[in-house]
Amino acid sequence: MGKDALPKNWPAGIPYLSGPSYAPHITKSQYQVAKTKTLDLVTEIPRDFPRGPSSLVRIVPIRDPSHPADGQAGLFATKHLSPGSLILPYYGLAHSSVPPHSLAHEQSDYDLWLDRDAGLAVDAEKAGNEARFVNDFRGVATRPNCEFRECWDLRRGERCMAVFVLPAGKNGIKKAVVGIGKGEELLVSYGKGFWGKRRHEGEGEGEGEDRGIYEGHNP
Ligand SMILES: C[S@@+](CC[C@H](N)C(=O)[O-])C[C@H]1O[C@@H](n2cnc3c(N)ncnc32)[C@H](O)[C@@H]1O
Description:
Blueprint: E1 21-22, H1 28-34, E2 44-45, E3 57-61, E4 73-77, E5 86-90, E6 93-96, H2 101-104, E7 111-115, E8 120-123, E9 135-136, E10 146-153, E11 158-165, E12 187-188, H3 192-202
Parallel strand pairs: 1-6, 2-10, 9-12
Antiparallel strand pairs: 3-4, 5-11, 6-8, 7-8, 10-11
């Protein structure tokens, strides 16, 4: 795939990112957080990890009335993906979730924490990469098969979130069930907070709730 090519089924009108972008409003110290490797950041994106559209996944429009995201899209494996392996980084607009900018930036369903303490989040609603298409497992499968993890990108010297295959033995995945099969949908857990918040919004009580998406790895 050429350097400037878009993944198949990439939506028109949404810029494709092959690296993170930073909102102009983020503070110097927030930018510094993104550019500083801390001791606990042990998971790394290797220097030779390919940039641009991923050969490991494809975006697929969902046309299945029994799928809760019917009419939307999902992300599917193009080959067998081994347990614990890195699939792809999650790119979007890194922005401040601390007032006053959090007030200007409306929380979206594509918003993921980069660093809670620093008030930094990544929103892939208006620009991103294939990772923005990962659906939640609820109503699709009995458990997630992948997760978001914080990591350090050795290619860019930068903190980022990325999607990994769940390791064997995690979240009830039996040791015998290994990885994600070719053609299988990638499914994470958005966390109970995401769905709880959505329920409240449906009841007109969503205002002022904490950002809930992808807050935990446990269903
Ligand atoms: C980060 S996006 C995932 C990609 C989305 N399907 C798309 O085509 O843009 C999150 C949105 O996907 C939908 N979604 C994902 N998983 C779902 C699930 N298990 N049940 C219902 N809706 C889901 C919801 O509309 C949610 O707001």
